[in-house]
């Protein structure tokens, strides 16, 4: 049986296609293996966002409380204490 002559350029393209196809299959395997890690990372990010939102709400509440104490008090020491708390809270919010 006579074989047709193989075009070297075509053979090179087919070899490259075979190589890249194998690489694609390996990559697909890696993606499937890492899916649980990706899901865990997404859950951690969602939890971090939720905790940050809770922290912001807590800081807002504490600031309102301190401002209310300042408005309701004529005592200088109490005012200084509450202002000190507000300054600390502002330092916390700078971390967001």
Low-pLDDT regions: none
Please identify the structural class as seen in this structure. Answer: mainly alpha
Separation, N- and C-terminal Cα atoms: 76 Å
Average pLDDT metric: 86
Strand tally is 0
Radius of gyration: 32 Å
The run of helices and strands is HH
Number of domains: 1
Shape annotation: rod-shaped
- Report the helical percentage: over 70%
Biggest pleated sheet: none
What's the tally of helices? 2
Strand fraction band? under 5%
Question: What's the topology here?
Answer:
Elements: H1 8-72, H2 76-93
Provide structural commentary.
- 86% of the residues lie in helices and 0% in strands.
- Helix 1 (8-72) packs antiparallel against helix 2 (76-93).
- It has helices at 8-72, 76-93.
- It has one domain (8-93).
- The model has no long low-confidence stretch (mean pLDDT 86).
- With 96 residues, the chain is an all-alpha fold.
- The N and C termini lie far apart (76 Å).
């Amino acid at each position: 049986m006579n074989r047709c002559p193989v075009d070297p350029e075509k053979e090179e393209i087919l070899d490259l296609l075979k190589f890249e196809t194998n690489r694609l299959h390996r990559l697909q395997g890696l993606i499937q293996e890492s899916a649980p890690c990706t899901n865990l990372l997404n859950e951690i990010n969602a939890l971090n966002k939720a905790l940050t939102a809770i922290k912001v709400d807590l800081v807002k509440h504490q600031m309102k409380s301190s401002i209310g104490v300042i408005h309701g008090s004529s005592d200088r020491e109490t005012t200084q204490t509450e202002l000190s708390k507000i300054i600390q809270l502002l330092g916390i919010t700078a971390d967001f």
